[in-house]
Amino acid sequence: MLNLSPNRVNKIIEQEKLYSLRAIKVPKAGKVLARILAVIGALFLIILFVPWQQNIRGTGKVTAFNPGNRPQTVETAIAGRIQKWHVQEGEYVDKGDTIITLSEIREKFFDPELLKRLAEQIDAKEKSISAKIQKAQALARQISALRAALENKVDQTKAKLEAERVRFLNMENQFQRNKKLFEAGNIPLTKYQDIEYKYQNAQAEYLNVQIELDRVQAEYLDKISKAESDRSNTEAEIFETQAELAKLRNEYANMEIRNRQYQIVAPQDGVVVKAMKAGLGETIKEGEAVCTIMPMTATDIAAEMYIRAMDVPLVSKGRKVRIIFDGWPALQFSGWPSVSVGTFGGTVRVIDYVNSKPGEFRILVVPDSTDTAWPKQLRLGSGIKGWVMLDDVPVWYEIWRQLNGFPPSLYQEPLDEVLQKKQVPDNSLKDEGK
């Protein structure tokens, strides 16, 4: 309608009564929808350029930062049969409290007086060693006495040999003189034969003393050798007995320790949360777990998160983390942590250098001292969801990254503390060169 005529049709005819006029009119709902879509489009365009904080998502559970404060299984060091349970599930135990009493199942250790028997064997071996030591000492004294007797006997025999040698030389000199006199006819034959007989006797005595010296030396050396052999055998027996004694002492010490292993005790303060074995009379093997103890260490809480392998290079120690705990209502805007509600702050403390699961790496997050304290009611093993906060980027870039499946990007490579320490240059050599 061009409205050229001064006569207005809409003033003569009511528009609402004609369907054709109503059909060409723009509905009010359409105008409202158009305005809403225009506002939404404008807001969307504005939001595309709003800063968005990139993050790396991960899931995990609550744990203790110190491995000694995590739930641990109590194992038996020896095989045995459960004789008595001293605790119940959910009961608090102190370090050293008895959890289970075992009874013996190996026939080698059935004797209740086994320690006493071993002590008697050890005492007998000690006395045997003492007696053999005395025997070795007696043989040593005998050897010393034989050496002294040999020296005295040899000295006596040598003195006698020297006397016989002098006597022999005198008789030889006398024999030579009388031989010349006999040949000259100055002495009778009987006197010459008598002197010759004495000379031969002196020579024989001299040779006998020489033989006696060799015999004495051989006799005493034989006695000394026999005594030394007996002493060596005795010392060998001492060493063998000492080895047997050491073995018995080792067995005795093992039995003392084994007797203490019949009482399975709590390794630290905590609560018995699960019994692996039930009832009485059940047989358990060496190293088999009997129960689990949860240490009471609420001050050592940490979050164990698992993130994708492609995101690990972008995480560094000290990065801020936002965490949601199972059981605590929260509203999390991962890109705008400032408007999140019910989340708790943390800091990356440990990054594993090997994957814990296929395609996933583990990180440990500790509470952020500058943020809200973590709930005291947290229990180890509770589930968590976390976001490792990175750098700020525009929203449009984050949407583009998500659509293409790219990992978050950083403007600077994260520094690794361990590698940093290894790569620190040694300035001492430069100083020396100057």
What's a concise summary of this model?
With 434 residues, the protein is an alpha+beta fold.
Low-confidence stretches: 417-434
- Number of distinct beta strands: 14
By oligomeric state, this entry counts as single chain
Largest sheet: 6 strands, antiparallel, barrel
Number of domains: 4
CATH fold group of the largest domain: Elongation Factor Tu (Ef-tu), domain 3
Kindly report the spatial arrangement of strands forming the biggest sheet: 1-10-13-12-11-14
Shape: elongated
- State Rg: 54 Å
Order of helices and strands: HHHEEEEEHHEEEEEEEEEHHH
- Summarize the amount of helix as a percent range: 40-55%
The level-1 CATH class of the largest domain:
Mainly Beta
* Beta-strand percentage range: 15-25%
Q: Determine the number of helices (DSSP H or I, runs of at least 4 residues).
A: 8
CATH homologous superfamily identity of the largest domain: Efflux pump adaptor protein, beta barrel domain
- CATH architecture tag of the largest domain: Beta Barrel
Structural category is: alpha+beta
Characterization of this structure:
By secondary structure, this protein is an alpha+beta fold. The chain has four domains: 1-48, no CATH class; 53-66 and 297-433, Beta Barrel (Elongation Factor Tu (Ef-tu), domain 3), CATH 2.40.30; 68-104 and 262-295, OB fold (Dihydrolipoamide Acetyltransferase, E2P); 114-261, Orthogonal Bundle (Helix Hairpins), CATH 1.10.287. Helix content is 46%, strand content 21%. It has helices spanning 9-12, 19-24, 28-48, 114-184, 189-261, 395-404, 417-422, 427-433; strands at 51-64, 72-75, 80-85, 92-93, 98-103, 263-265, 270-275, 283-284, 289-295, 301-308, 320-325, 344-351, 360-367, 383-394. The strands form three sheets. A six-stranded antiparallel barrel has the order 1-10-13-12-11-14. A hairpin with an 8-residue loop joins strand 12 and strand 13 (360-367). Helix 4 runs antiparallel to helix 5. The two termini are 97 Å apart. The model is unreliable at 417-434 (pLDDT under 50).
